[in-house]
Design brief:
2 copies of one chain form a homodimer.
Chain A: E1 2-3, H1 8-21, E2 24-31, H2 40-43, H3 50-60, E3 66-77, E4 82-91, E5 105-109, H4 110-118, H5 123-129, H6 136-153, H7 175-204, E6 217-221, E7 224-228, H8 233-267, H9 270-279, E8 282-285, H10 289-299, H11 307-318, E9 320-323, H12 324-328, H13 342-348, E10 359-361, H14 378-396, E11 420-422, E12 431-433, E13 446-450, H15 457-463, E14 470-476, E15 479-484, H16 488-496, E16 504-507, H17 508-517, H18 529-539, H19 544-555
Parallel strand pairs in A: 1-4, 2-8, 4-10, 8-9
Antiparallel strand pairs in A: 2-3, 3-4, 6-7, 11-12, 13-15, 13-16, 14-15
């Protein structure tokens, strides 16, 4: 189901329902680009630590826009042994809400835009009809503005619509206010005909009944009687005042409700993320590190400075997260799945020893055909991701005694895969751990080399020519990691370089130790070092084409 | 006429012709945003010098994309006393040309995108079908790559397609190569049937004629004869070699032509700018400083560091430039034109003392209806701009003796308006002078005030409360210009502040002198000072809404 600003409000109940009833959710995002600095191949150094990768993505990927968000909900139908899925494809755009709302600037990367264009992506839907959103801080500020408006409109007095969720934890869908609006809005529109009836009746009987005099009369209107009592001046005033007070309360309620609705409109798509968050359902994605970072950044808060805090925010938002790319790259799948790109994984999981699950679209929802391959539409990618998860989870059932054909998303056997995100192109640290410390690889055959900035990859190849095959991972324009084939070569390399003047070699362990010691010293990030690095790298003939391909893949995160 | 990647090549001749035959050209651009830093109201300080304004726009506006370029050509039809116009609306997008071509990142400003979306702007046309482009340096690099490819393919030898325009001046459309391609491509395809005829003929006569023997025979093919001579072994080898050499030359020519065409495709939209440049026709625009800066930046070279060099590049590209907003703000128009926004100007110029010119679309070109107002489509805006220029130029004819009803774009009387660009929101320097020094206003009633960074606009109002109305123009978070009503108050203000500790007041003249003296010292631009400034400014109640409106206007440059 495609959701834009045009049908967002009327679809909310459907989306909330789908989330509430689901066994698990699958998500996917499409972005306006990947890296505004180094090419992705430089951005994702094979020897990055999770912290380093996080810092790079935080610095170079967050100015892009997540402009399509796919959500696919899966509910198991036990009697018919099948899954019912509901797929939603949200177009998202930070349309300025009013004159004082933030005027977001975002970056587009022409290769990413061009790729999406070639897949038939509808940019007009994003830019004309995208659902707006606010992060928590923007929501808080707007609420404050409204409260000020209200309290100005009401004279003094506390405004009646402070959300109890303002201060603590993630902002959730304010159900209590929805009910409030449901109650108030129909009431106020319902009153109008009654009032006008009274009016016309009053006109009719103008000559007969005077409000200045105590006339008692009862006039039948349908099956009820309106009793008119003859009131004296004081009584009349009291009633007038009462009436006015009531009117004022009603008017305040109307204003409050209207402002409240405006605020909800501005919070927009973030309400979907809040609902997912509130549901605490398992959220499945494929290679989802960037999806999660963008979700935090766009709909919650600026990304925390260290990855550890970010991990906490991630879990705070999604509670339980499962990355199908990580799952497919881990035992027992690792050995039987060669290619973990989303498209390839989906195909592989249709074959033995896996069993394609029976999944049907719910009534009124579009049917996706996996044979037609609508990849790179976020809703479809989320659907495929969900399929992959079901197949892999079910396969785990074959290891149980007795074996089970279906494994639920709540099963203990799936838990080891929770809250670990795939770490692209890092061979010895497979994942970012959202709950607990990251893995610390020893990297016994890795050297850290510093050298003059004139050096190129070929200089490193020459320096290490005695050691056979090496792998060079650039850090900045004056340092790189060099991986040797044998760990015992490391000592030799360090020893032979002891008296070298132009370069320095140390073991990975030494490098890490020194780095940790200088934690308090200002971290040295060579800001534009990558440009230099890239020039150097491209001058070696090996990587140009391959890197561009992995780049293209990376752009669409289905590697 | 709408031009995308799909019809760009087939439309080139039409565009070139229109430019060649035109009396003058009108242009307009649409961008993905205006300022990625301060709001436009802060970006355009009312006391900016042209140099300062240039620096701000260079820093904060150039990361946006010029993605729609309007060109409208006007040719006078003397016999029928009317103009014939041809309007082109180019969609422009930096689609990566190949794997090694630059992967452009550009910024979008949501308010600008939202505004264009509300005007029905077609983003899909930009992103899916936009015409690509290269600046001169990118073109040079690509040409080098191709030359290397060619020389590798040909063994040694110099490649045959070096453009004579590589080194000097702006790159113009390489006509000589177009002719070259026209000659080569048809030739090579035309040869094929001849060769195959020869083959089939050779097969037919295989038994009769042996290449090892000297057989003389003539075979009629249509009305010509092919003479077969019996050749001895040496002669045969010589001929084979000749043939091979010829084949090689032809193949080189084919490769060269194909690469040359590829290169032209990559240069893409820049060829239109080159053609305008080569034509040296008068180029008319409305409030066109940003248009010109984007044109240089996107299609020529990174913007020079100082505005003076940039002015030189501008004239190098467009030769003669006329800004209708400046013209309308200058004598003799200033007094009779109140509002110089493009839409208002167009309406005003339909009324007395002006005469709306007779302008017709050329055959096969879309007719624009000024009553229907298709503003903010670049082609239409260029058209309207051209109309405004004709009306104003013709009005100048009423000052001639004898008066003239029509004034040509080549008339001496128009020349005072050449090569001056409107400088938005600066009251005392109306324009950026592209030929010669900029105006130096005295600003005798302006003070430069330095103060602690905690100060807000209200503090300045308080400080100068004795002087009546003042105008505050923020520079950064610790300084501002304050304009007083009377120049004679300036001395008093400076004197009274002599012993102040927290702030410093100097005259504008003193400020400029000190600044010039410190030219060699590193210029102090408080990088993110504007954020602070903006917060302060917004806290005063005066400007919020007005600034947003002028901002919206500024976005579409029809102020």
């Amino acid at each position: 189901m495609e959701i834009t600003r045009k049908n967002f409000k009327e679809s909310l109940t459907t989306v909330y329902e789908a989330i509430e009833e689901a066994d698990f959710l699958a998500i996917d995002g499409e972005f306006s680009g990947i890296s505004d600095g180094p090419p992705v191949c430089t951005l994702t150094n094979g020897l990055d630590t999770p912290e380093e990768r996080y810092q790079k993505l935080r610095k170079h990927s967050m100015d892009f826009l997540l402009f399509q968000f796919g959500l696919c909900t899966f509910k198991h139908h036990h009697a018919e042994a099948k899954y019912i899925m509901k797929s939603f494809n949200f177009y998202v755009f930070p349309k300025p809400f009013n004159r004082t709302s933030p005027d977001i600037k975002f970056v587009c990367q022409s290769s990413s835009i061009d790729f999406l264009a070639s897949q038939g992506f509808d940019f007009n839907k994003v830019f004309r009809d995208g659902v707006p959103y606010l992060n928590r801080e923007e929501e808080r500020q707007l609420r404050e503005q409204y409260e000020e408006k209200l309290s100005q409109a009401n004279g003094a007095g506390t405004p009646s619509f402070i959300s109890p969720n303002t201060a603590k934890g993630p902002v959730v869908v304010p159900e209590e206010h929805k009910v409030f609006i449901d109650k108030v809005v129909p009431t106020s529109t319902h009153q109008k005909p009654t009032i006008s009836k009274t009016k016309s009746w009053r006109e009719k009987y103008r000559n007969l009944t005077s409000f200045n005099n105590r006339i008692v009369e009862s006039i039948p209107i349908k099956d009820r009687y309106i009793v008119i009592s003859r009131a004296d001046e004081e009584e009349r005033k009291r009633r007038e005042q009462q009436k006015q007070a009531k009117e004022q309360v009603r008017s305040q309620e109307r204003v409050s409700a209207a402002l409240w609705e405006e605020l909800n409109d501005a919070v927009g798509f973030s309400r979907i993320i809040h609902a997912i968050s509130k549901s605490a359902k398992l959220v499945v994605g494929h290679n989802m590190l960037l999806d999660i970072m963008h979700t935090i950044h766009q709909f919650y808060c600026p990304l925390p400075e260290v990855s550890n805090s970010s991990a906490q925010v991630s879990i705070c938002i999604y509670t339980r997260i499962l990355d199908t790319k990580l799952m497919a790259s881990t035992q027992p799948f690792k050995e039987i799945i060669n290619n973990t790109s989303l498209a390839d994984l989906e195909k592989r999981l249709k074959e033995s020893p896996f069993h394609p699950p029976v999944v049907e679209s719910a009534e009124g929802f579009p049917r996706y055909d996996t044979a037609a391959e609508q990849l790179h539409e976020a809703g479809y990618d989320a659907y495929i991701t969900g399929l992959c998860f079901i197949s892999m989870a079910n396969y785990l059932g074959s290891f149980l005694t007795p074996p089970k054909l279906r494994v639920s998303s709540r099963s203990k056997i799936v838990e080891p895969f929770f809250n670990k995100l795939f770490l692209m192109r890092v061979m010895d640290i497979p994942y970012v751990n959202l709950q607990g410390p990251d893995l610390q690889p020893k990297r016994e055959n890795v050297l850290h080399v510093s050298f003059p900035k004139e050096w190129k990859t070929s200089d490193l190849y020459q320096l290490f020519s005695a050691f056979g095959n090496i792998l060079v991972s650039w850090i900045d324009d004056t340092s790189a990691f060099v991986t040797l084939t044998q760990p015992d070569q490391v000592k030799i390399a360090v020893n032979t370089s002891r008296y070298a003047e132009s370069y320095r070699i140390q073991t990975y362990a030494e490098y890490v130790e020194k780095k940790q010691n200088s934690t308090h010293a200002k971290r040295k990030w060579v800001e534009d070092g990558w440009k230099e690095v890239e020039t150097k790298r491209l001058k070696t003939q090996y990587t140009t084409y391959a890197s561009q391909e992995s780049f293209n893949n990376a752009v669409h995160r289905s590697v």
